[in-house]
Batch of 4 targets.
Target 1
Amino acid sequence: MDRATFAFSTAFFRDFGNPSPGALPGGHVDFIDKVDSFTYSDFFRDYLIPNHPCIFSAKFTEDWSSRKNWVTWDGKPNFEHLLQNFGEAVVPVANCDVKEYNSNPKEQLPFKEFVEYWQEYIGNSYHSSRGCLYLKDWHLHRAFPEQDFYTTPVYFSSDWLNEYWDAVASDDFRFVYMGPKGSWTPFHADVFRSYSWSANVCGRKKWLLYPAGQEEFLKDRHGNLPFDVAAPDLRDKRIYPRSSQSQPPLEIVQEAGEILFVPSGWHHQVYNLEDTISINHNWVNGCNVALMWSFLQDELAAVQREISQWKDPMDDWHLQCQLIMKSCTGIDYKEFYNFLKVIAENRISVLEKGLDEESSSQDNSKAAISTLGMLHAVFDLKRTVKVLSSLSANEDFRKLDLSSLSPSPEALLQHLEAAIDTALL
């Protein structure tokens, strides 16, 4: 057993439940400064399982090429370098001054046009007739895979979302954000109630975070969440009758180079205090996959309520509900099954065939499993079994045509349980 595996093997076989809401006494957030001594098992035990936020110091990103090349000597965005490398790209840009269906509307712009706007915006004392534009959710890693501008810290390497979407080659959840001082992101929780990590390449951000569950107190009389939790009308009990019951948000100022770990299901609102560039990943793993499954069930229930009047006259009502849910969330129950299958089969392959250096160096998922150890693979399988068992027994899942799923859910469960038993011998 290698040292890393030994260090957290005990934790992996404890019967952890779902991540807790993660409220912090006194609003304290730990600051992680010791690169050499802070281990993955420390992060797993103290932050992933309790679902607590933390901040990693700039020491954890000081070797990134983006920290060296995307930033000028005085800590500002290096527009000249960025234009040389990405000038011809087309990027998604939101207008922070406009509200459209509880979000900021986006348009696709040439990157060089956005940079030109940004420079003019700075020169005009941060004003423009075009509003405050914010480059958001840019899949830069996918668009320029040959460029090694950062390295995912080991603490975030058990990343099932990107492992799956890399495997099916259809999407990813790795993003770059670039925006001027004053740009911001409205109140939200991350996709699938995932964890996220966000690193400031340059600039500073202010975060307002609410532990999971607190958002229920912030809903208006119709059950809708606020667009802006800092708006004065949130204190109007006629509109938001339970807002006074909410805890105050956890306020964090994130400095240049620092990484913030955002727990699963925590709603948040974010402001750029300076001209800022950041790198962000959304990620799910064995610690919070049950929350992802709960989120999907809630989303389907909401769709079913919305179109309940069409249940009787519509022969394929259950299928239509799945289609609507996928259009809103990006995934339906059958793809969630395939998601679990890919994750499970990757780990079964490692347990059955072992890790050879050549294959693991060519496969990012195997490389991550190799780094974290065999017992982590077993932990992942145990968590997958729990969620897959629940999915397989789910009434809405069983009403779908499952003949296209290979292997069948029952066969996959048997395979997983056998692989776990064999690994533990």
Note: Residues 52 and 210 are 11 Å apart (CA to CA).
Target 2
Amino acid sequence: MSQGGGAAAARKAAKPQDQGWAWMVLFAAVLLQGLTLGFPSCIGVFFKDLQHEFQASNSETSWFPSIMVAVLHGGGPLCSILVKRFGCRFAVMLGGLLSSVGMVSSSFCKSISQLYLTAGLITGLGSCFSFQAGVTVLGYYFVRWRTLANAVASTGTSLGFTLWPLLSQYLLDEMGWRNTFLIFGGILLNCCVCGAIMRPLQLASESAPQSPKPGREAERSAEAAQLSNGASPPQPELQQQSRRTACSQALQKYLAFDIFCQNKRYQIYTVGVAWMMMGFALPHVYLVPYAIQNGVEERKAALLISIIGLINIFIRPFTGLLSGHRVFTGRRIYLFSLAALLCGLSNFICIISAEFSVLITYCIILSIAMSGIGALTFQVLMDVVEMDRFSSALGLFTILESITFLIGPPLTG
């Protein structure tokens, strides 16, 4: 009777996956990625105004979006700690609050260095918490439809790419950059609403009683034997050993160094994506000022980023459905590699001409490549590592990305 009741409880606990409230969580993840990953796409709209306001060079001004994007991806270990200690919902809502505070504070900045701290560090860290916790929770709510869920969630980034530049240009023309940043603070506060939807999911495996770890049991028995023999362990050595063990366990738990050393697929994938990201964010930072410098009207220049986002909206779900087919099971890495190759080669189009029609062609090809990368990045990572270590693997993955994200735009500037 008890076994039948336990089986029924297990089925009930696992029921929310792939159905019901899971789709509400997916909807929240779409909005969340639009509010976080899509947000840096609008920074290029403010580039010239910030340069004029603070009398800053290209390189000095580009540090602001670089820090934001780098912290957005590099705060993974902190997010991993928050998720493990307090859950995904808390991390998402805290991130929304930090993002809002950062942008509201940015509207009062008196120097470009203050903008590095407020919009760069604080808003970037808040976006990191919201985005990465939102990606992690999808892995628990979806199993059968996980590939499709990740692709659909990534369309939120495309929506952000489409809407943020248009909204930014309109508000900048009407109110100036300071009031625009103030309004952005209120918009980013909606991350807290998305986080409230992501209620904790109790799975059957989590409700089962956990047996004590063999290593811990052996340690306790050894300590008991020592005490029964009347011998007291040397306290300084034990404390030093325990500190080393705690440090090693923390690195494995939150940064997945053990996976990086042992899993060659994860190692190659992480290093490869980190190298790719050095140039991945450059169009969002420099495409608008590049077009304006070459005679394109400001509104048309802002439209270029929106074109990238608009095409992404339709291509990303298609990429998710295609990669979810059984033919590509275990082979999604090849689709990702093809998208990364196309993304890199597309940048040569800008060398041909800076006319608006040529730049539109560039945006179309670039957006197709970015759709593949955006839809598959985290799905391939989920294929490479086990789901129970995904949060830790994501932390190391994103912190290595953040290094190249940070140096790419200033180096180009």
Note: The first helix runs from residue 2 to 14.
Target 3
Amino acid sequence: MVPSPLVLLLALSAAATVLAEPLRFIDCGSIDGSIQEVNVSPCPTQPCLLHKGTSYSINVTFASKIESQGSKARVYGEMLHVDIPFPIPEPDGCKSGIQCPIQKGHSYSYLNKLPVKSEYPSIKLIVKWELVDDQDQMLFCWKIPVQITS
């Protein structure tokens, strides 16, 4: 018996939902926005296991409390309370799913990629992800524990 397209679609949706469960995160200073949800895919459990040579999808839903012409992401690996800059392919929030200019009271889905390079060490750390407005104030800031692995 061949499964119907609806059964296949439901099965795929269930699998995608498992991979993109909302994460428990620490808000580390969102001032000009409020985070509604953070998803890292795939990351079915925490700490997220980040495999070297793999790229992870980041989706943050947030509401803006201000108007801003633009936004810029800054990502860090935090070890022993020291922030080490972590390059991402596209730091411009307006090229990452956000319709600019940002409007006060509107919700946005910020979408980006987190590439984990093969040369990174295998280590446990905290990923800290900030999105700042055009006044360099935090639209959002969140932290999650991760483990980089081979």
Note: Residues 1-19 have pLDDT under 50 and may be disordered.
Target 4
Amino acid sequence: MWARELAVSAPGKVILHGEHAVVLGKVALAVALDLRTFLRLRPGAEGRLSVSLPGVGVRRSWDAPGLRALRGRIAGKGRGEEPLPGDKQLDALREFAGIAAGASAPESLATLAFLYMCLAISAKYGDVPSVDILVWSELPTGAGLGSSAAYAVCLAAALLMVCGAISCPLQEGESTARWTEEELTLINSWAFRGEQVIHGNPSGVDNAVGTWGGALRYQAGKITPLKRVPTLRILLTNTKVPRSTKVLVAGVKEKILKFPAIMNPVLDSIDAISQECQSVLEAMPANPSPEHYPVLEEFFDINQHHLNVLGVGHPSLDRLCQVTASHSLHSKLTGAGGGGCGITLLPPDTSPLAVEAAKQDLCACGFECWETKIGAPGVTLHSCSSLSAQVLHALAQS
């Protein structure tokens, strides 16, 4: 029986540097975005497990005996066995939930990931108790900001905690708490399994950022969290221009094959920017000098030009950079490009009036804009009373 009402949150992510070059073995830097997904956990009706995801229109409830029977079907040889998210297991989950084969809508994938993680975790660690789970997010879906990974990280932390696989580190009177390194590693491994259900073959970067927060370096499949990084203010702008990551990646590869002598030095330069930026970020906490910010701004400018050379720019992103430049701010695309999102660095001496003017001009272009931070904490446990009024209001409305 689970008896406490608590909340879990996990951050989204942006790529700071290394887009597209990372596919070809170069370094990328991913950073936690302080727009978060929140999961509220509270005791539920006896013998039932409920989940509400109002952002994608999901409200489902299942009885415990039905879930145990389904767990037996997908777990194979019995309790203690971890069912891998293979076709056979996922087909059984789709049949149980009434999800059509091949359905890829966010509500279908979110429900599938929830059922898989619930049953796979309970098969290994014991039954999930009767709880009500409500998930709400500040992250837009489908914008390349790690919304599905933040969801998977929150689910993994909550389910592992109620099953007793990890501790409940929040003491009475505390507002927030985090798990041990060993527990975070377990959370991350299960969140990756949830991401596999949603994306098939994810890199593992998004769930790692959601788990540990801060910044991490990714190269050739190896993920290394940076030890100490500053929290930087940014504007995050969604151009709302849809794009296909697959098409953009293919276009970059085609250009490299066509002009290797020209394009390979560009990739090497992007790699150097990522590594130089890592050095600056790691130096900043010990020496918080304003001189670091012009260097970071130059990295933004140079990398944005490189990404245009790779062919992943877009007129909407050019407009974003022009608008922010008119306010003496520096921007670059983040993620796949071809539209999507861009980030704008806000040095500490940026006046509130300049930020507000830039936001108004960006919104006048039809873009969506948030003032937020990068380098945010990873998955965190909260007392519900400590959550901001905005989050509490959103959860109450849900």
Note: The mean pLDDT is 92.
